[in-house]
Design goal:
Blueprint lengths: L2 E7 L13 H7 L2 H7 L3 E7 L17 H16 L4 E6 L4 H16 L3 E6 L20 H5 L20 E6 L4 H8 L4 E4 H7 L2 H13 L4 E7 L21 H14 L2 E7 L10 H13 L14
Parallel strand pairs: 1-2, 1-3, 3-8, 4-5, 4-7, 5-6, 7-8
Length: 305
């Protein structure tokens, strides 16, 4: 059984559309602590983080609240680096991952362990402060944590994640510039066209075999609501049709559970204002339960109506 720490991160400045700041409490109301405790895990809710004052980030015109995002990145990274057991970061928009991944990579460096990242998202989020056209910095985490240039004013990385230690699954909305920059990095990128042809299991199994071959690895999983098809997960502001189905998503989580490799998790981009009576929050918790040991055979039949 695992020692799990729930860390609320109500960051809502990585994009212009508000609502993700309510995500951590939505997960709590939907019963994440009780669900994980019922599986036999020791669970502690550390409450919600708060950033310090905005950082002085050089202005680049289009950027949306870069100083606030930098302050959050610093606070999250410090908390992640000092965490113990298996932290679950409850978001909050995906700018959360600038800090959670940077901090967990630093923790891995402190322990002398290799670090890997599984990115479950419709988007590659490989923009920098200079390449983003929208200015929404929830589209920058993978570029930042892999040490790409053009993040002036943001916290320096203790350890950059090697791009060939990154796998992205579920992609279906990637800007041409991101695609071009990613193509030369060694990162594993799997879009939904490939998933349609090969299924979810093949690329994930290949990546997990790579992780397992390392000596005492740490694996961080960053799960965005928009990895899922909006027909089953409507509570997100960045819906992209053609996402993972209920069965595909649970397969991913069960494979991760069976691997025994996951050491930290993000749950991001839940916007309760766009959800349908907590439906998306409950599904994300069910997926977390699958990651932490619950199996399809354990699921009760639900009455209709």
């Amino acid at each position: 059984m695992a020692d799990i720490t729930l860390i609320g991160v109500p960051i809502d400045c990585g994009k212009e559309r508000a609502g993700c700041l309510m995500g951590p409490d939505a997960y709590r109301v939907a019963g994440i602590e009780g669900t994980l405790t019922a599986l036999g895990h020791r669970v502690r809710d550390a409450g919600n983080l708060a950033p310090g004052a905005d950082w002085d980030v050089p202005g680049m015109g289009v950027l949306h609240r870069p100083g606030a995002v930098a302050a959050w990145t610093d606070a999250i990274a410090r908390t992640a680096r000092s965490s113990r057991g298996l932290p679950i970061f409850l978001g909050g928009d995906h700018a959360l991952a600038l800090g959670s991944i940077a901090g967990m990579a630093a923790r891995a460096a402190d322990l002398g362990r290799p670090f890997f990242l599984l990115w479950l998202d419709a988007h590659s989020d490989f923009h920098t402060l200079r390449t983003t056209r929208s200015g929404n910095l929830h589209g920058t985490p993978v570029a930042y944590v892999t040490g790409q240039p053009d993040f002036e004013g943001f916290p320096p990385l203790i350890r950059a994640v090697p791009p060939d230690h990154v796998a992205m699954i579920g992609l279906r909305s990637v800007d041409p510039g991101e695609r071009d920059r990613l193509s030369g990095t060694g990162a594993r990128t799997h879009d939904m066209r490939e998933i349609d042809e090969t299924g979810m299991a093949a690329p994930l199994r290949d990546f997990l075999e790579c992780v397992a071959a390392a000596r005492d690895p740490m694996l961080h999983v960053s799960l965005d609501v928009d990895f899922l098809d909006p027909s089953i997960a409507p509570g997100v502001g960045t819906t992209v049709p053609g996402g993972a189905t209920f069965r595909e998503a649970h397969l991913v989580m069960e494979m991760l559970s069976e691997s025994g490799l996951v050491t930290s998790l993000d749950l991001v981009e839940l916007n309760p204002a766009l959800d349908e009576r907590g439906r998306t929050a409950r599904l994300m918790i069910e997926l977390t339960a699958s990651l932490m040991g619950k199996r399809v055979f354990d699921r009760p039949t639900r009455p209709r109506g």
